[in-house]
Automatic annotation (TrEMBL):
Stretches with biased composition (Basic and acidic residues): 10-29
Protein name: Ras-GAP domain-containing protein
Residues covered by the Ras-GAP domain: 184-358
UniProt-listed InterPro entries: C2_domain_sf, Ras_GTPase, RasGAP_CS, RasGAP_dom, Rho_GTPase_activation_prot
Annotated segments matching region Disordered: 1-29
GO-annotated molecular function: GTPase activator activity
Electron transport found in the keyword field: no
UniProt keyword annotations, A-Z: GTPase activation
Keyword Iron carried by entry: no
Record-linked PANTHER family: RAS GTPASE-ACTIVATING PROTEIN RASKOL, RAS GTPASE-ACTIVATING PROTEINS
Length: 358
């Protein structure tokens, strides 16, 4: 029975391991860009489980073509059993569905089958587990997913388009800025950054795009570098692209230590149970929190010499360009908004979104 297979315990994946496991073999064909091909991408979030006994631990396996591709962490059911677990994989063109199997410890509880129908939209719903057992209340699992099948032409077919983007990406962003929702801005900015990086003009593109935003908004606009524009989404995508290893080296150890720390750091009086000695408890929690903030801040300061050279060059060029425009007052605002507001702080708040933790 494929659902009774044990999930393999493997060491921490390297970036290369993740890429090799999640992408089809055709990606490793050095001539793949010379030929027509189809890529089938599944993005799947395993969110939460309900209608199961409390105080038990549960986990899930994602099975693709009867092989275990991804395993969630084991979570204990209290009021809810929540994972919020995300994975992305390429699917063989012959596959018509994938399965998510649910386990209580080593016991298989049931599974759901998800049919693979290509769509530009994300689907989210509760699935009832299919099982041989006849429980009064059928366990349900909430899953969000999107399967997208894309036909890709030989690289030569995109020659004119690549040349157009290299010469007109900034003006294209200007035309699209007011017409796109935030999610589309994120997708398009990321695509443009990846193309620019591959074509070796990412630095020029980012500098011109951000200077254009400064020109359009003016120095005193409170949303400058803070709003959801194509410029801010582009620099955010670039930091993700070139800075993942730096981010992990800087904050991963601290984040894991915080999660494993038994000391309470809650400082909101309304969220602290047992109100006896409340003032003393708050002070103790504040001290623990301040120690953690100090520790992670020290790691950030010490990491400056390890900042990727690509980011050093981009921010250096932006600084020079702003100084030429007599806008020295914006240099620190730009760099801090990018590195902290859009990179380090979101990674600390949501480490799973940055592949730091599940």
């Amino acid at each position: 029975n494929i659902f009774n297979r044990r999930s393999p315990k493997t060491p921490k994946d390297t970036a290369k391991d993740k890429e090799k496991r999640s992408l089809p073999n055709e990606r490793y064909d050095p001539d793949r860009d010379l030929h027509f091909r189809t890529e089938n991408i599944l993005k799947l979030w395993i969110l939460e489980l309900k209608n199961v006994p409390q105080k038990k631990k549960y986990y899930c396996n994602l099975l693709v073509d009867e092989e275990i591709y991804h395993t969630t962490q084991s979570k204990q059911k209290t009021d809810i059993c929540f994972w919020g677990d995300y994975c992305e994989t390429s699917i063989d063109s012959q596959s018509s569905h994938v399965c998510v199997a649910v386990y209580k410890k080593a016991t298989h509880l049931g599974y759901v089958k998800i049919d693979l129908v290509s769509s530009s939209k994300t689907t989210e719903k509760w699935f009832k587990l299919e099982s041989d057992k006849s429980d009064k209340e059928i366990p349900q699992i909430r899953i969000k997913y999107r399967f997208h099948s894309v036909d890709i032409l030989p690289l030569s077919a995109y020659k004119a388009f690549r040349e157009y983007l290299q010469n007109n990406s900034v003006s294209l962003c200007q035309m699209l800025e007011s017409t796109l929702p935030v999610k589309s801005k994120e997708d398009i900015a990321s695509a443009l950054v990846h193309i620019a990086q591959a074509q070796q003009y990412a630095q020029t593109f980012l500098v011109n795009l951000i200077l254009n935003e400064v020109k359009n908004k003016g120095d005193n606009d409170p949303t400058l570098f803070r709003g959801n524009s194509l410029a801010t989404k582009a620099i955010e995508a670039y930091m993700h692209l070139v800075g993942e290893d730096y981010l992990h080296d800087t904050v991963e150890e601290e984040i894991k230590s915080i999660i494993e720390d038994p000391h309470d750091m809650e400082v909101d009086p309304m969220k602290i149970p047992n109100f006896s000695n409340l003032k003393e408890k708050i002070q103790k929690h504040q001290n623990s929190l301040e120690d953690r903030v100090t520790s992670i801040w020290r790691r950030i300061l010490q990491s400056s010499i390890h900042l990727p050279i690509e980011l050093v060059n981009v921010f250096g060029s932006l600084k020079e360009a702003l100084l030429k425009e007599a806008k020295s007052n914006l240099v620190d605002v730009l760099i801090s908004s990018c590195i902290f507001l859009r990179f380090l702080c979101p990674a600390i708040l949501n480490p799973s979104l940055f592949n730091i933790l599940q």
